[in-house]
Amino acid sequence: MAAITASMVAELRGKTDAPMMECKKALTEADGDMAKAEEILRVKLGSKAGKAAARITAEGVVASSINGNVGALIEINCETDFVTKNDSFLAMAKAAADLIVQHNPTNVDALSALAYSQDGFGPTLEDVRKGLIGKIGENMTFRRFKRFEGSQLACYLHGTRIGVMVEFTGEEVAAKDVAMHIAAMKPVALTSADVSADLIEKERAVATAKAAESGKPADIAAKMIEGSVQKYLKEVSLLDQVFVKAADGKQVVSAYLKAANTTVKGFTLYVVGEGIEKKVDDFAAEVAAQVAAAKQSA
């Protein structure tokens, strides 16, 4: 039996990012053969992907890619903010955006099946995802993406958590300014006519409840409700919003675009984790459970 030294364990950990004890076990099983130990860990790490799949991925990044008039915006999720700074995770995210531009996959499954290799994992993007789950120790998912083609495109990324793609004709500087505005103000539609009926009805219900509490006569209450709805529509419609860089604090986006001889045809806004229910850990309860388990096993 070959002697397993600390330097051997450190070397294997450097190659795989696996926990120290896992590296030592693999080296022991491989009788000190570094290549064999690495292969053993690849197998073990791969098995972690299945265990991690049930864990909530509410953190992550938004990545983008533009090649001429073809572009892509994608959200890739993970479990903790720590992983969003990992170079391998970020490289996979950027590669996924590039693959969408190049191959036009129809859905996440089709995207995952595309050829891609990274960090010794492959030959598909899905294999890389599973490999990085094992290597880093967190679940990762390709949540959603959108591909754009046929228009001029402008993108704005606010860090890695917010991404905006704008389809436009005209001046790129103006389009990028509007993309930044969208990231800040988060409109839900291009115009008030594009706001979904569900959102309008929710706002109308809130306004109706407030009007009822006011005790105003029915005709006045009806005007209050309609006024609230119209105010809401202006607040959430891109072209009606006051432009964040307006010098006078009053100019709306539509006026800014007109002055720049630019037309926005549509936009897509991704905010990391939007709509995902995050798990809230009860640390005290977790510690108590561990103590209770330790007592039972004693």
N-to-C SSE string, H for helix and E for strand: HHHEEHHHEEEHHHHEH
- Taken from the alpha-carbon principal axes, the silhouette is elongated
Average pLDDT: 86
State which percent range the strand residues make up: 15-25%
* Most strands sheet: 3 strands, antiparallel
Radius of gyration: 26 Å
Question: Regions with pLDDT < 50 over 5+ consecutive residues?
Answer: 47-51
Distance between the termini: 33 Å
Helicity, as a percent range: 40-55%
Per DSSP, the total helix count is: 11
Beta-strand segment tally:
6
Widest sheet: strand ordering? 1-2-3
Describe this structure as you would to a colleague:
The protein has 298 residues and is an alpha+beta fold. Helices cover 49% and strands 17% of the residues. The strands form 2 sheets. A 3-stranded antiparallel sheet has the order 1-2-3. Strands 4-5-6 form a 3-stranded antiparallel sheet. Strand 1 (59-67) and strand 2 form a beta hairpin. Helix 1 crosses helix 3, helix 2 (20-29) packs across helix 3 and helix 3 crosses helix 6. The longest helix is centred in the first third of the chain and has 19 residues, at 34-52. It starts with 5 loop residues before the first helix and ends with a helix. The relative contact order is 0.11.
